[in-house]
Design goal:
The structure holds two protein chains of two kinds. By secondary structure, chain A is mainly α. Chain A contains 21 helices and four strands. Classes of the chains: A mainly alpha, B mainly alpha.
C-alpha cells in the first residue's frame, strides 16, 4: 500500500498555486455575490483579477518539470510539465476572453440576478480543466472531468427562459452522464487488473504482459469513450451540434476551445504515458502493442473530419455550422495525435493555439451581431458586410483562417500538421485531410457570400465600444500575424512537447 | 541602383495602395481610382527600370548566382533541439529570363485593367482594394524563388478573385466565383503536398556547413542536395516522384486551364467584369504554365522527359478541343474564353518540345496571348458597355457604325489567328518549329496545325457575324471609341504589332534562361539515370 507523506504533501502545495488562486477566486466570487448582491458589475472584475494572478503564478512554473503529490517513490498524482503548462495557458487565455465576451453578451445580461452562479461555475470549469491537464491518476482525471462536466451542464442551460438552453443542458447532461459512467466502469476494470490507477504505474505493469488482453482492451476503450465525448469525435459527437446551438454563445465558445483543449491534453497524456514503450531518436513514440492505436485513431480522425465537414455543408444556423466545423477540427487534431511523434504533437499544439484565436473570434463576432439582430441564421446575415464592414471583414478573416488559407494563421496550423504527416509517411491521410479542407471552404465561404455578395435593404448598426474593439483586435491580430511570422509560436510549442518522464 | 529592392517594391506597392484606398473615404471615388492608377503606373515604371538594369546574358533557372535583382533574407528561422520543428524559410525574390517577361506582362495588363475599371460604380473602394491585393499576389508569384513564399502568393490571389467575380460580376456571378475558388483550391492542395514532400527530400547546406531541409526552389533543383530516403528523393528506391510530378502538374494545369480541368474558365470569364476578365486571361492563366516551367521542369527533369509525350498530347487536345468548342459558342465572351483554352494549348505544346525553340515559343506565346486576349476581352467589353448584350448573332455590320473600333478588332483578331506581321504568328511559328524539332512531339505538332485553321475559322466567322454585312437597325446609336478606350487599346496594339515585326528584344530577354533550362534538363538525364542504377 502506498502512503502519502505529509511533508511531501505540503511541499507539493507550492506546485498547485495557480489552482489555489483559482479556487480562492471562486470563493471570492461567491462571497461577493452574497455580500454585494445588488452590485453584479463587480463579478467580472473579480474574475479577471483572479485569472491574471493565476497567470502570474503560471508563468513562474515555466520550464519546470516536477512531480507533485508523490505516491511512493516514483509515481505522483500531478505532473507539472511544459506540456500541461501550454494547455493551461490556452485555457487561461480563452477564459479571460470568455469573461470579456460575457460582459457584452445580451443573453448573459438577461440572467443578471444569477451572475454569481455564472462566473462561479466558469471557475468550476477552469479548476476542473487545470487538474485534468496535469492529472497522472485515473481517479483524479475522472474527478476533474466530472467537475468540468457538471459545471458546464448548468452553464449550457444558463438562460432559464430560453427553451433552447434548457434542451441543450438536458441533452448534454444525459450524454455526459452516460459517457462518464462508461469511463468510470473502464477505470474500475483497469484497477481490477492492475491494482493501480496511476498512469505511470500502469505503464510499468503492462510491460510485462500479465493482463488478459480482452478485459484490458475493453477497459481502455471505455476510458477512451469518456475522453472522446469531451473532444466530440465521431462516434461520441451526437451532443455537440445540439448543445452548441442551444447553449449561450459564450459557453458554446468556451466549450469549443477550452473544454476541447483539456480533453485533448488528457487524451495525449493517457495515450503517451500509459502506452509508451520508448522514444526513438527522431521523436517517434514506440507504443506497447496491445492495441493498434495508430490505425484506430487515423480511422476515427478521418471519419470525424469528413463527417464534420459534410454535415456542416447543410447547416443554416451559423452556431450549428460552427459546431460541426469544430467537430471537423477535432478530426484534424486527432490526425495530429495519431502520428505518435513529438513532431505531430508540436503540430497539435500549434494548431490548438491558432484554433483558439480564430474560433473564439468567429463566435465573438456572431455574438456581437446576435446581440443586435437576435438571430444566428446565416440568411439573416444578408448584406452584413456592407452595413457592418468591420465585423463582416473580421468574421471573414476568422472563417478564412478556419479554412486554412494563407496568409492567415490557420494555414500555418494546417501546414505543420501536413508536414508532420508527410514526415511520418502518412500520405493518404494527408490527402484526405486536404480534400476535407476543400469541402470546408464551401461552407465557410457561404457565409462570406451571404455577407458580401448579396445586398440587403435592411441596415443593421452595431455600436462597438472600445472594449469590444480591443477584444476583437486581440483575436484578429494574432490570426493575421501568426500567418506570416510564426517563429515564436513554434518555439513555444517546441518547448512544450515534453511530458513528465518522457 | 543595385541596392534598391525593386522586386519588393513591385510586389508590395499594391498593398500600400490598398491601405491608402482603404483609408480614403468611401465617397471619394475619383481619388480611389487615381491612387490605383498611380500605383499601377509606378509598377510599369519600375518594370522598365528592371529591364534597363537587366543583364541579358545571365541564365538563372537553377543557378542562384545568375538570378538578378535578388533579395534574400531569412524570414522564419526555427532551430530545433534534435530535428524537431526545425524550419527555415527565406524571403527570396529574384528574376530571370523566365519571369521577367511575365513581370512585364503583369505590369502592363494590370495598368490597362485599371483604366478599364474606371466604369465600376458599385462599392468602388472595395473593388480597388481587392484589385490591388490581387496585383500583389500575381507579382509575388512571378518573383518568388522560395517555394513557401511562392505558395503564399499563389493562394493570396484566390480570395480577391472570388470577391471580384462574386460581387462585381454578371448574373450567375456567385456560381462562377465559387466554382473558380473550389477548382483552384483543389489544385493548390496538391501543390502544397508536393511542396512538403520536396521539403523533406532536399537539404540545403548553410554557411556554417550544417545541412537543413529547405523550401528554396533552387536548392531543390540541385541533385546533390537530395536526402537519402526522402519520399521525393531519387536516391530513395521507393520514391514517389512520378506521382508527385503528376499531382503538381495537375495543380498547375487547373490554372492554365488544361483539358479536362478547364470548365471553370468559361463560367468565370462570362461572369467577371471586363477588367477582371482581362486580368484573368492576361495574367492568371500564365501562372499555371509559369509554375510548370519554374517548378516541375527543373525540379523533376527526368520525369519531364518521361512525360513530354503526354504534355504534348494534352497541348494538342487543348488546341483542337478549345477551337472546336469556341466555334460552337453564341456568347462573344465564351468564344474568347475557349479561344484562350486553345491558345494556352500552344504553350503546352511548345514546352513539351524540350528544345530552345519550343520553350522560347512557349514563353513568347504566354506573353503574346496575354496581350492579345486582353485586347479581345476589351473589345467585347466595348460593345457590351454599349449594347448590354454579347450575343454574336444579334449584331452585324458594326464595321460601318464603328470603323475605328473595328480597325482595332481586325488587328486583335488577326493576331489571334496568327497572321504574319503580328505577334501571335511569331510565337505560334516557334512553337511549331519546336514541336517538329522533337521526335516525341512531332506527331502532335502536325495535328495541331489544324488548330490554326480552326482558329481562323471561328475568328473570321465571328468577324463576319458581328462586324461585316449590313448594319442591324437596332445599333444605329452606337458610338465609336471613347478616349479612355483608346488608352487601353492603343498600347496593346502597339505591342502586338511591334513584337510581330521585331520580336528579338523579347527573345533576347529569355534566350539565356531558355538555353540554361534546356541544358539543365538535358544534362540532368545522365545524373538521374545514375541515381536509378544503384
Amino acid at each position: 500500500m502506498n502512503k502519502l507523506i505529509i511533508p511531501d504533501l505540503l511541499n507539493s502545495l507550492n506546485s498547485i498555486l495557480p489552482e489555489i488562486v483559482l479556487s480562492l477566486t471562486l470563493v471570492a466570487i461567491i462571497l461577493s455575490d452574497l455580500i454585494f448582491h445588488k452590485n453584479k458589475k463587480l463579478l467580472p472584475y473579480i474574475s479577471l483579477i483572479g485569472l491574471i494572478i493565476t497567470f502570474v503564478f503560471l508563468i513562474n512554473q515555466f520550464g519546470k518539470s516536477d512531480a507533485a503529490f508523490p505516491v511512493a517513490a516514483q509515481f505522483s498524482f500531478l505532473s507539472l510539465d511544459p506540456f500541461s503548462l501550454f494547455f493551461k495557458v490556452i485555457i487561461l487565455v480563452s477564459s479571460i476572453l470568455i469573461i470579456l465576451f460575457s460582459v457584452s453578451s445580451k443573453e448573459i445580461e438577461s440572467g443578471l440576478d444569477r451572475h454569481g452562479e455564472y462566473y462561479g461555475l466558469i471557475f468550476g470549469m477552469i479548476i476542473g480543466m487545470f487538474f485534468m491537464i496535469s492529472a497522472n491518476d485515473l481517479i483524479l482525471i475522472y474527478l476533474s472531468l466530472e467537475l468540468l462536466s457538471l459545471s458546464s451542464y448548468i452553464l449550457a442551460g444558463f438562460v432559464k427562459t430560453s427553451l433552447r438552453n434548457s434542451e441543450a443542458s438536458l441533452k448534454y447532461l444525459i450524454y455526459g452522464a452516460a459517457s462518464s459512467g462508461i469511463m468510470l466502469f473502464g477505470i474500475s476494470i483497469l484497477f481490477g487488473i492492475f491494482g493501480s490507477t496511476n498512469l505511470h504505474e500502469i505503464n510499468e505493469l503492462i510491460r510485462t504482459p500479465a493482463a488478459t488482453q480482452l478485459t484490458f482492451l475493453i477497459s481502455v476503450i471505455f476510458i477512451f469513450a469518456g475522453i472522446g465525448f469531451k473532444i466530440s469525435i465521431v462516434p461520441f459527437h451526437f451532443w455537440t451540434p445540439d448543445v452548441y446551438e442551444g447553449a449561450p454563445i459564450t459557453i458554446t465558445a468556451f466549450l469549443s476551445v477550452a473544454s476541447k483543449a483539456a480533453g485533448f491534453a488528457v487524451l495525449i497524456r493517457f495515450l503517451k504515458v500509459t502506452f509508451i514503450d520508448s522514444l526513438t531518436g527522431n521523436g517517434y513514440w514506440q507504443l506497447i502493442g496491445y492495441i493498434d492505436w495508430q490505425t484506430l485513431l487515423i480511422i476515427i480522425a478521418i471519419i470525424t473530419m469528413t463527417f464534420g465537414n459534410f454535415a456542416a455543408l447543410w447547416q443554416d444556423n451559423l452556431k450549428r455550422m460552427l459546431a460541426y466545423s469544430s467537430i471537423a477540427h477535432a478530426g484534424y487534431l486527432m490526425l495530429g495525435v495519431s502520428i505518435f511523434s513529438d513532431q505531430g504533437l508540436i503540430a497539435v499544439l500549434i494548431y490548438f493555439f491558432i484554433y483558439m484565436f480564430m474560433n473564439l473570434g468567429a463566435f465573438y463576432v456572431v455574438m456581437l451581431i446576435a446581440n443586435k439582430i437576435n438571430s444566428e441564421e446565416i440568411d439573416d446575415y444578408r448584406g452584413i458586410g456592407y452595413s457592418l464592414p468591420l465585423l463582416g471583414t473580421t468574421l471573414g478573416i476568422f472563417l478564412i483562417s478556419l479554412t486554412g488559407l494563407p496568409p492567415t494563421a490557420g494555414f500555418i496550423g494546417k501546414l505543420y500538421l501536413f508536414i508532420a504527416l508527410v514526415d511520418a509517411n502518412m500520405i493518404v491521410p494527408a490527402i484526405i485531410a486536404l480534400l476535407n479542407t476543400v469541402v470546408s471552404l464551401y461552407y465557410y465561404v457561404r457565409v462570406l457570400r451571404v455577407m458580401f455578395l448579396i445586398k440587403s435593404d435592411k441596415t443593421v448598426s452595431v455600436n462597438l465600444n472600445p472594449l469590444n474593439f480591443a477584444v476583437l483586435m486581440f483575436m484578429v491580430i494574432p490570426t493575421l500575424l501568426l500567418g506570416v511570422y510564426f517563429s515564436p509560436l513554434v518555439n513555444f510549442a517546441k518547448e512544450s512537447v515534453q511530458l513528465l518522464g518522457f | 541602383m543595385n541596392n534598391f529592392p525593386i522586386l519588393t517594391f513591385l510586389t508590395f506597392l499594391p498593398i500600400l495602395g490598398m491601405v491608402i484606398v482603404l483609408m480614403l473615404p468611401k465617397k471619394q471615388e475619383l481619388s480611389i481610382k487615381i491612387t490605383t492608377l498611380l500605383i499601377t503606373g509606378i509598377q510599369i515604371i519600375l518594370s522598365i527600370f528592371l529591364l534597363m538594369g537587366y543583364n541579358f546574358s545571365a541564365g538563372g533557372i537553377n543557378d542562384p548566382s545568375s538570378f538578378q535583382f535578388v533579395e534574400k533574407f531569412r524570414w522564419i528561422d526555427i532551430t530545433g533541439f534534435a530535428w524537431i520543428g526545425k524550419i527555415k524559410i527565406d524571403y527570396f525574390l529574384g528574376v530571370d529570363g523566365l519571369s521577367t517577361p511575365l513581370v512585364l506582362l503583369t505590369a502592363i495588363v494590370v495598368f490597362i485593367a485599371t483604366i478599364s475599371s474606371w466604369s465600376i460604380d458599385k462599392s468602388v473602394k472595395g473593388y480597388f482594394a481587392m484589385f490591388l491585393l490581387l496585383d500583389t499576389g500575381m507579382m509575388g508569384t512571378f518573383v518568388a524563388l522560395d517555394f513557401f513564399l511562392f505558395y503564399i502568393f499563389w493562394e493570396l490571389m484566390l480570395l480577391p478573385m472570388y470577391f471580384l467575380i462574386g460581387i462585381w460580376g454578371g448574373p450567375r456571378r456567385e456560381y462562377a466565383a465559387i466554382k473558380f475558388f473550389l477548382y483552384t483550391l483543389f489544385g493548390s492542395i496538391f501543390i502544397l503536398l508536393v511542396m512538403i514532400g520536396l521539403y523533406f527530400s532536399s537539404m540545403e547546406t548553410l554557411a556554417d556547413g550544417t545541412r537543413v531541409f529547405t523550401f528554396n526552389m533552387l536548392e531543390m533543383m540541385n541533385p546533390a542536395n537530395y536526402t537519402a530516403n526522402g519520399i521525393l528523393s531519387p536516391l530513395n528506391p521507393n520514391n514517389l516522384r512520378l506521382i508527385a510530378y503528376i499531382a503538381l502538374f495537375a495543380g498547375f494545369a487547373i490554372k492554365i486551364p488544361m483539358f479536362p480541368f478547364h470548365t471553370w474558365l468559361p463560367d468565370a470569364h462570362v461572369e467577371a467584369p471586363t477588367a477582371i476578365s482581362v486580368i484573368l486571361a492576361g495574367v492568371l492563366l500564365k501562372m499555371g504554365t509559369y509554375g510548370i516551367l519554374r517548378v516541375c521542369y527543373p525540379v523533376f527533369p527526368e520525369i519531364t522527359y518521361q512525360l513530354a509525350w503526354w504534355i504534348a498530347l494534352f497541348g494538342m487536345i487543348n488546341i483542337i478541343y478549345g477551337a472546336l468548342t469556341a466555334m460552337a459558342q453564341k456568347d462573344f465572351k465564351k468564344l474568347i474564353a475557349y479561344s484562350s483554352v486553345s491558345h494556352m494549348g500552344f504553350v503546352l505544346l511548345g514546352m513539351a518540345g524540350l528544345n530552345t525553340i519550343g520553350i522560347s515559343g512557349a514563353i513568347l506565346q504566354m506573353f503574346n496571348h496575354g496581350t492579345i486576349t486582353a485586347m479581345l476581352f476589351l473589345i467585347v467589353g466595348v460593345i457590351y458597355d454599349r449594347a448590354h448584350i454579347r450575343d454574336l448573332d444579334a449584331f452585324g455590320g458594326l464595321g460601318k457604325q464603328m470603323p475605328i473600333y473595328t480597325g482595332f478588332v481586325t488587328v486583335a483578331f488577326f493576331a489571334a489567328i496568327g497572321l504574319p506581321g503580328l505577334s501571335g504568328f511569331i510565337s505560334e511559328a516557334l512553337v511549331f518549329l519546336g514541336g517538329f524539332g522533337s521526335d516525341t512531339t512531332r506527331i502532335f505538332a502536325v495535328i495541331s496545325t489544324l488548330g490554326i485553321l480552326l482558329g481562323a475559322t471561328y475568328m473570321l466567322w465571328t468577324m463576319q457575324r458581328v462586324y461585316l454585312g449590313s448594319l442591324n437597325e437596332k445599333w444605329k446609336e452606337l458610338k465609336d471609341l471613347t478616349a479612355r478606350e483608346y488608352f487601353m487599346l492603343v498600347p496593346l496594339t502597339v505591342i502586338v504589332i511591334f513584337l510581330g515585326v521585331y520580336p528579338s528584344p523579347m527573345l533576347d530577354l529569355m534566350n539565356a534562361s531558355v538555353n540554361a533550362m534546356v541544358k539543365f534538363i538535358t544534362d540532368a538525364q545522365g545524373v538521374y539515370s545514375a541515381f536509378n542504377s544503384f
